[in-house]
Specification:
With 112 residues, the chain is mostly helical. It has a single domain (7-110), classed as Arc Repressor Mutant, subunit A. The model has no long low-confidence stretch (mean pLDDT 89). It has 5 helices and 2 strands; from the N terminus they run H-H-H-H-E-E-H. It starts with 6 loop residues before the first helix and ends with a helix. Helix 1 runs antiparallel to helix 4 (45-57). It has helices at residues 7-15, 18-29, 34-38, 45-57, 76-110; strands spanning 61-63, 72-74. Strands 1-2 form a two-stranded antiparallel sheet. Helix content is 66%, strand content 5%. The chain is elongated and about 75 Å long. Strand 1 (61-63) and strand 2 (72-74) form a beta hairpin.
């Protein structure tokens, strides 16, 4: 397994897992503890903690300390950066598709 080191790859690797995406959706509502995040899943708190470590490593979440608990919070800026990358590349491919479609129309028009 390759070691991922660039920031964008860390984000996309973290987002590749449906459990982690569900955790991020939950954190979009409000901060939550590991116990609260583990409730809807059929997995242990330790398993959820492993997912949280991946999200934290990708800097998609942050953890603070409040008395005995360590609530997690979404770091939306990282998601915005990934969405920006996707949008830039979506636009590049859309432009290429439009140019290809125009080229095909010209070819078909000249063949008649």
């Amino acid at each position: 397994m390759a070691v991922v080191t660039d920031e964008l790859s860390l984000v996309f690797a973290a987002l590749a897992d449906p459990t982690r995406r569900a955790i991020l959706e939950r954190l979009a509502e409000s901060e939550a503890t590991v116990h609260e995040l583990a409730e809807p899943f059929a997995m242990t708190q330790q398993a959820v903690s492993k997912h949280l470590k991946v999200l934290e490593h990708a800097r998609l979440i942050s953890r603070t300390r409040s008395a005995q608990s360590r609530p997690c919070a979404l770091e939306a800026q990282r998601l915005a950066e990934a969405a920006g990358w996707i949008e830039r590349h979506r636009q590049v491919w859309a432009d290429r598709h439009d140019r290809l479609a125009e080229h095909v129309r010209r070819i078909q028009g000249g063949a008649r």
